[in-house]
Amino acid sequence: MNITAVRVKGSGRMSDTLNSDPRVRFWYPAMTKPRNLLFILTSLALLVPVNIYSTGTGAWTAYGIQWGLVRYQHAVIGDHLVSFSTDLYSVLSQGIASGSDAFAVLVWGGAVILLIAALILNAVALWQREDSYVKRAAGLTVAAGLFFLIADIVRFGLFLHGGTGWCLPIGIPTILLLGIWGLRTDPGVTIPPAAPRPVSSDTSLKDGETVAAHFKELLHDREVISLTLLTVLVMAVVFFAGMLPNISFETITGDLYLYHWYATAVFYGHVPYAGYYVPYPQLFFVPVFLALIPAFSLENATGYMFSFSSLMILCDIATLLCVYSLAERFFGKEKAFLCGLLYATGIGAAFFVPITFDALPTFLMVFSLWLFLFRRQVASCLSATVSMLMKWFAALCFPYYLVYAHKNGSGARTMKKPLLLSVLLTAVVVVPVMFVSMSGFLKTYQSHFTRSVEIHSLVYYLDTISSFIFHVSPFDTWSFVLLVAGELVLLYWYFRYLDGQPLTLVYLVFAALLLFVLINKVFSACYLIWLTPFLALILVHSRRRILLFYLAQVVIYLETPVLFKIVYGPLTFGADPRLYYAVLDNSLPSFSFIFYTVKFAVFLAILWVCIRDVKEQEPNIFALQRCGDDKVGILLGSR
What we know:
Layout: H1 13-20, E1 49-55, E2 62-67, E3 70-75, E4 78-83, H2 84-92, H3 100-128, H4 131-156, E5 161-162, E6 165-168, H5 172-184, H6 211-219, H7 222-241, H8 249-252, H9 254-265, H10 285-290, H11 301-331, H12 333-344, H13 347-352, H14 359-373, H15 377-388, H16 397-407, H17 412-436, H18 438-450, H19 458-470, H20 475-497, H21 502-519, H22 528-538, H23 543-563, E7 584-585, E8 588-589, H24 591-617, H25 620-623, H26 629-635
Antiparallel strand pairs: 1-2, 1-6, 2-3, 3-4, 5-6, 7-8
């Protein structure tokens, strides 16, 4: 789809700023085609079970079911979950040896790569609304189905039954039919362009519209349905592609095993915070226990992992709806789809969503921001409070909510009740735990102040440089002071100098969150889940920004597998204190130092973009009044 922005004639920086400011940018859609599920359905081949198989003989017989991305295998020695990337790596790392099994793995891996390429083409087709991309993706799907069939024949024989076992290719006909159907189907018809309309800063709901009705309407939107399906497909691809031989499945899913232990320990008489240490606030146990309900058995850790991951995926989809809704109000429907597309294809966050609990507090924080901007202050503050009592990040919202209310003339009058209810909710949750075990309660919070700096943080990186140059490491000691000072400066800047526009609030909450992540002693890879909704909203306005978005996603996605056993230890869920990195290694910059230089350069660049946007946008709304009546008429979409 071609998009053109209205330019206001003028000289100097003002004209450029008006054209670049997302709050005063207006779009004129050209002749285009509607988006629908036909753009993405061929990629369902990634989720289709391809084979039911049996391999081996006698006591070594194994049975399983195989998808394109992963296979589950049951044998006497135990159950295994093996990804296509693990199989490919095991063959390629030893060289292409003779034998049908090795060749079959390569052909199978080629089929999966074709399906991933088809998924990428389908995502491009969704954005560009181009039939040609859909046809190419369908052709790749047909080719992948044939590759799967060839791989089965190579491994099991022409009739799929031989001395090494047998297989039933139950999914290959479906994959071929999906591809052929895609080749023969027209995804849409041309529709006339919509009338130009201005981007609105009004984030109130329509007259008589409820929150539930708003999201129900979104769930019936074909674009949102396509994005939701794309989100699930991307998660499947990046998760199973990230299962590499140097990291066991138990290590990748280590947090889920820990959550299962937290959930089941209560039933054996262990009281949280009193009987054992818990590093998270009290409402952390809400998702932990919710995931136990569908698992049926306390002892079934595998069922619990599936239940917990499904819950987190649903939370991530709910966050996608909030991002889409906010972007639609800020930038219009076309930009909203691109924001949703960025969020759905954020591969770094997508990898961690199913294996950590961060997706739920992230949704509650973004939902809180949505509610606040849609003038539901009480529900907003309660949502942020629940999020804060799962993980502390959401506490950053409250001071910015207060300043926003002050700037828009309501101040303490509208915030008094929401804040009182938030304090009451916090007391109801926290006080009983304090009575049960004050020491256990305090330990949860004290441990985060007294913990040593972890290797994946910016604080450790700066201390490494300082120690190399000046032989001192001050940042660990002063990190908390720097964090508080930075947050106070940012809040004062908002209070004293910036406007009260809804988009400015989004920028400032994100800046505060990113500053916290950067100056905190820990920069866990899963923190990207918190940042991605804001990154999708802020980095949507140009190709360079979109590139920055994907750089952030890729660098976090690669961090753990690339640095495993270098910075990350195999026996720990985080940084191994026995593993360190230095600036130089054998008189050259160490690999770890180079990697973290790139990582922090990307995130500091994002922070700079955010701050620059806010500085440049500040005078624009008032400058509209000085543009002249004719130009104001154009900008406001008058006829």
